[in-house]
Amino acid sequence: MANHELALTQMKAKFSSMTLSERMAKMDIPTSGNIATVIDSDTFNEIDDQFAIAWAMLRHDRIDLQAIYAAPFTNSMFNDSHEAVSDPNVGMTLSYEEIERVIDRVKVEKKPEIFKGSTRYVYQSTTAERSDAVNDLIARAHACEEVLQVVSIGAPTNIAHALLADPSITDKIHVLWLGGHSFDWHDTEEFNLLQDKDASRVLLNSGVALTLFPCMGVTNTLATSVPELQYYLAGTSEIGDYLAQEAPKCPWIGFANRKVIWDIAPIGYLIDASWYTETFVASPILNDNLTWSFDNRRHPVRVIKFIERDELFVDLFNRLIKG
Questions:
Q1: Residues with Cβ < 8 Å from 74, sequence gap 6 or more?
Q2: Any residues with CB less than 8 A from the CB of 296 and at least 6 apart, and which?
Q3: How many Å separate Cα 314 from the centre of its chain?
Q4: How far is the C-alpha of 307 from the C-alpha of 93, rounded, in Å?
Q5: Cα 159 to chain center, whole Å?
Q6: What local confidence, expressed as pLDDT, does residue 12 receive?
Q7: Phi and psi dihedrals of 223, rounded to 5?
Q8: Do 29 and 269 meet the contact criterion of CB atoms below 8 Å apart?
Q9: Dist CA 117 CA 41 (whole Å)
Q10: Among candidates 103, 100, 99, 131, which has minimal Cα distance to 118?
Q11: Tell me, what's the pLDDT at 79?
């Protein structure tokens, strides 16, 4: 048994003492006040993470964004990547640099700390990698007086390494993960999930409080277009103008095509959960062929089923315009 598999077995044993009410309470989002939050993001991979980070920073009335973690990514398997990356460490470093560019352009008094994350995926590891991001997540989770909201909008590698390094943080965090596809979809061959299947299984199997935002079938409704982004954002705030300029650089956004801003989904949920329709199901099982299986004896997770798209974009654009 590999070290991370052994750690996962130990983690499940520890989590088994949590009652259903305790587990469900960790998934509750406070209806008022500032919510202690961190974001784990593969920011350079495309353009949607930048919107999510900026929106979270600009909604400081609702979100206490304490830290941002640079997640690894590799996208060289796609022919239409704006920059082909085959090394997860390179993807993580590029994301770290893009996070810096984004937060520099958001004019708020309090800026989140930034930490470099994992240089390798969980499936490439025999022990949990203690990156700066992993160490900060563990420390911040233990220091948080309430439940720490962990927004994962990339491969969940950093979060999985943290859970494997310190399983006790399952009692301290709620993960909001944009990953996989709807259970009605023919497969779950989705970018965040497939990059690191072992990390994805850690989230699904560990028992950590989890809200799942599926891509195809749910968050693909969060679509806009380059003309719309430029019409509303160009020449407004520094961050709004930056996003309007960056959006056309994604080569897959062609004539009459829409751009899905996937990664704003978990941020919107923290702002106002009434914009969402949700259900609770037994945590799905990720098969090797990238399909879902189900066993109703497993612990429950929240799954988003529908999003009021316009509610999110009205708030997002208004905040970006004002910067």
A1: 85, 86, 87, 88, 91, 195
A2: 282
A3: 21
A4: 32
A5: 10
A6: 60
A7: -105, 145
A8: yes
A9: 10
A10: 131
A11: 60
Yes or no: say if 293 and 287 are a contact pair by the CB < 8 Å rule.
Answer: yes
Consecutive 10-residue averages of pLDDT for the chain (323 residues): 57 66 93 95 94 98 98 82 85 98 96 98 92 98 97 98 94 97 97 96 94 98 93 97 88 77 97 98 96 95 98 98 93
Which letter, b or e, does each residue of 13-45 get, where b requires 16 or more Cβ atoms within 10 Å of its Cβ?
Answer: eebeebeeeebeebbeeeeeeebbbbbbbbbbb
Query: CA 129 to CA 162: how far, in whole Å?
Result: 8
Left if phi > 0, otherwise alpha if psi is -120 to 50, otherwise beta: which for 173?
beta
**Ramachandran area for residue 35 (φ above 0: left; ψ -120 to 50: alpha; else beta):** beta
Q: What's the token pair of residue 258? A: 């829409």
Give the residues across from 301 on adjacent strands. Answer: 281
Q: What is the dihedral of CA 110, 42, 248, 178, to 10 degrees?
A: -90
Residue type at position 248:
P
Closest CA to 106 of 241, 246, 247, 239: 239
Residue 69: phi, psi to the nearest 5?
-110, 130
Joined together, the tokens standing for residue 59 give 């909604």
Residue 113, Cα to own-chain centre: how many angstroms? 17
Backbone torsions φ then ψ of 140, nearest 5 degrees: -70, -35
